[in-house]
C-alpha cells in the first residue's frame, strides 16, 4: 500500500477554526521576545529579537 497516493478520507467539522495565534497573543509574544532579547548579557539576544521583529511586522497597526 502506497500511503503517498492514497486519497485522504474523513469528515471535517463545518465549525469555524480558531487561529493558531490571535492578534493579542502575537502581540504578547513579541513583547516577551523583546524582553528576552534585552535580558541576554552576552549579546545573543538577537536570536529572540529577530523573530520578534519579523512577527511584529506582520501584525496590524494598533
Describe the fold and architecture.
With 62 residues, the protein is an all-alpha fold. It has a domain at 23-57. It contains two helices and no strands. The protein has helices spanning 23-39, 46-58. The mean pLDDT is 82.
How many distinct helices? Answer: 2
Helix content: 40-55%
The ordered H/E elements are HH
Let me know the largest β-sheet: none
What is the overall pLDDT average?
82
Distance between the termini: 52 Å
Shape: elongated
Poorly predicted ranges (pLDDT <50, ≥5 residues)? Answer: none
User: In terms of structural class, how would the helical and strand content be classed?
Assistant: mainly alpha
Number of strands: 0
In terms of DSSP E residues, the strand content is under 5%
Radius of gyration: 19 Å
Briefly say what this structure is:
With 62 residues, this protein is an all-alpha fold. The chain is 48% helix and 0% strand.
Amino acid at each position: 500500500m502506497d500511503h503517498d497516493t492514497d486519497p485522504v478520507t474523513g469528515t471535517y467539522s463545518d465549525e469555524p477554526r480558531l487561529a493558531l495565534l490571535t492578534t493579542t497573543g502575537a502581540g504578547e509574544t513579541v513583547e516577551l521576545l523583546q524582553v528576552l532579547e534585552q535580558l541576554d548579557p552576552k549579546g545573543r539576544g538577537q536570536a529572540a529579537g529577530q523573530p520578534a521583529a519579523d512577527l511584529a511586522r506582520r501584525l496590524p497597526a494598533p
